[in-house]
Design a protein that fits this description.
By secondary structure, this protein is of the alpha/beta class. It contains eight helices and eleven strands. The chain has one domain: 3-Layer(aba) Sandwich (Rossmann fold). 44% of the residues are buried.
Length: 300
């Protein structure tokens, strides 16, 4: 088994050597230095794709992307590859497998569909990769829809860390620009067709409370309503609608669920638009979390 030297990696990481695995238990005990793509079939038609950058660091950062322009992007998509390559840590980049269900859908929050729990598959594969590269600290990160995935997957990995930027915390509360159900409609139509069929019209999704008919894959409010063994750094722009619709409800649910000691809320001001964090904000926050977690690891 050979890995691609990091200096030879192309912009999107698509040229990394490919390793096919049947599941997390099939990941080799030791992965080589460099870049390696890992592909696990979730169904015969839908793969779970990951790009692993192994620097044999004690820290591995697991990155998730947000909404994806399907007109200009070819899957798999590995977000912030160049940014994380600059840090002295290992990294893993997951492409959302749920997007394979429909070529027109832009945002599916890594939930999976039906009996296919993508959050659990990613959690298991992330832990196997961390062991294979010798990382003791696992940090999941993303912004917006990727931040939702970071919260959800980290909750399934004991002692892991989530660093989420301007994240959705409940898919049923997500509105494009705080007004439009466009992405939410597409998601329910594709991922939860039985719920979609229950609507009299597409606009019936508004105020329908459809998430009550789904499981906790669609809501971090539900997932964190019970004690979890991870830690969360939640960064939010207080000037945009996610602050009221997602950030505050998550803090309330997580604290009532007994997770108050493990949630660190950070707020900032980035204007009224829902935006991704700046490069400096993203890297500065990650560096701070890495330092704190390394200190905790030494004490523990």
């Amino acid at each position: 088994m050979h890995a691609t030297p990091l200096a030879d990696l192309d912009t999107g990481g698509a040229n990394a050597e490919l390793l096919n695995v049947s599941g997390a238990g099939d990941v080799p005990q030791k992965l080589p230095l460099g870049a390696l793509r890992i592909r696990q079939p979730l169904t015969p038609e839908v793969p779970l794709d990951a790009l692993v950058v192994n620097k044999q660091s004690d820290v591995v950062i697991v990155s998730f992307h947000g909404a994806t322009d399907r007109k200009t992007t070819v899957l798999p998509r590995f977000e912030r590859l160049r940014t994380l390559l600059e840090l002295d840590v290992s990294s893993v980049f997951f492409s959302d497998p749920t997007l394979h269900l429909d070529p027109k859908i832009w945002l599916t929050w890594y939930t999976g569909w039906g009996d296919v729990d993508a959050h659990r598959a990613i959690a298991d594969l992330s832990q196997a990769i961390a062991r294979s590269i010798g990382a003791s600290i696992v940090i999941f990160t993303g912004s917006s829809g990727g931040g939702f995935a970071a919260l959800q997957v980290s909750a399934l990995v004991p002692d892991s860390v989530a660093v989420a930027f301007n994240a959705q915390t409940d898919i049923g509360r997500y509105l494009v620009e705080g007004e439009y159900y466009t992405q939410q409609k597409d998601y329910v139509r594709v991922v939860w067709p039985e719920i979609w069929a229950s609507f009299e019209t597409p606009d019936s999704i508004a105020g329908s409370g459809w998430t009550a008919s789904a499981d906790d894959r669609v809501s971090a409010l539900s997932r964190y309503s019970v004690p979890r063994g991870n830690r969360v750094y939640l960064l939010q722009n207080i000037e945009e609608y996610h602050y009221e619709d997602h950030f505050l409800p998550f803090l309330d649910a997580a604290w009532r669920g007994g997770n108050h000691e493990n949630i660190v809320p950070w707020v900032n001001r980035q204007g009224e638009k829902h935006v991704v964090p700046t490069l400096k904000m993203f890297t500065d926050c990650l560096k701070k979390v890495i330092a704190e977690e390394r200190s905790r690891d030494r004490r523990g």
